[in-house]
Write a structure and sequence with these properties.
Ubiquitin-like (UB roll), five-stranded mixed beta sheet, two-stranded antiparallel ribbon, 2 helices, globular
Length: about 140
């Protein structure tokens, strides 16, 4: 088995044409998963349009598209809980983005390290399995 390193500057990767409608503009959105670059833990799922992708690539800081606000969302602009991007990947269909990040503070707007802080037990009960890092009322004013 050979290890082929291929570089490309293909503007169709990621494939934003395959994305979902933002609902507020002509922008197409792709899911973007933020994963802790050290532990591998999934921190959050957000959305990126082409502009967010380009700004993230150029600045090394995670930028997403907020569907609720209809505009770019620079992670940490309100809370200070930024994501420094260590690696960017695109899946085999070029329609999902994976960011390996160094997270500063809580990734979740509810104050948890990850947005995936709830476990669903086999009986259907939900269990919160971690402690809040910050009180959202203190961070988002």
């Amino acid at each position: 088995m050979t290890n082929n390193l291929m570089t490309t500057n293909d503007s169709s990767i990621p494939n934003f044409d395959a994305g979902v409608s933002s609902g507020v503009s002509d922008d197409r959105l792709l899911p973007a998963i933020a994963q802790d670059a050290t532990s591998g833990r999934v921190l959050m799922l957000a959305w990126m349009n082409r502009e967010a992708w380009e700004e993230t690539r150029q600045t090394g800081r995670a930028v997403y598209f907020s569907r609720s606000r209809g505009k770019l969302w620079r992670k940490g602009e309100t809370s200070g809980h930024q994501q420094i991007v260590r690696q960017m990947q695109v899946d085999c269909d070029a329609d999902t983005i994976l960011l390996h990040v160094e997270q500063t503070g809580a990734a979740c707007h509810e104050g948890y390290a990850s947005c995936f802080f709830r476990d669903v037990r086999s009986d259907g009960e939900i269990e919160i399995r971690e402690t809040r890092l910050v009180d959202p009322a203190d961070v988002y004013r």
